[in-house]
Request: fold
Amino acid sequence: MNSALIAEFKQESANTRKMLERVPQEHFDWKPHEKSMTLKRLALHVAEMTRWATITIKQDELDFSADYPKTPPINHTEDILSLFDQLKAEALEALENVTDEELGRNWTLKNGSHVFFTLPKGAVLRSMVFNHIIHHRGQLSVYLRMNNVAVPGLYGPSADEK
Reply:
């Protein structure tokens, strides 16, 4: 099962990196609405979600009320890319070493005693990790468009790359 997950992860990670490369640090504080994340926060969230692949494989739960890895200071687009590259390498190593048996074990997302869900690790990787990154990457493409930044093609050419 991990060979299919690895292939998907590699393809989507390449697309994610293409998007993150375009994030203009001069617009880090921009956001389209008062309830929205800033461009920097959204880009950082997309990069950091990659960590969840490793957490899903190596742990049986993620409890938001417990300690969560601290993000290093981010001041430049290169900082986001470096963090993403590091987390991607860690996730890929975890994916390459996980067994089908481990992927079938349950994983829980919770905040203290409040459980959001419990699903098999393989399902968590596809839905909560991969699809979640893709969702926020889509938001990021809109942020880029609204700042007149050329959006890269992901599954074929974009309107900016014919």
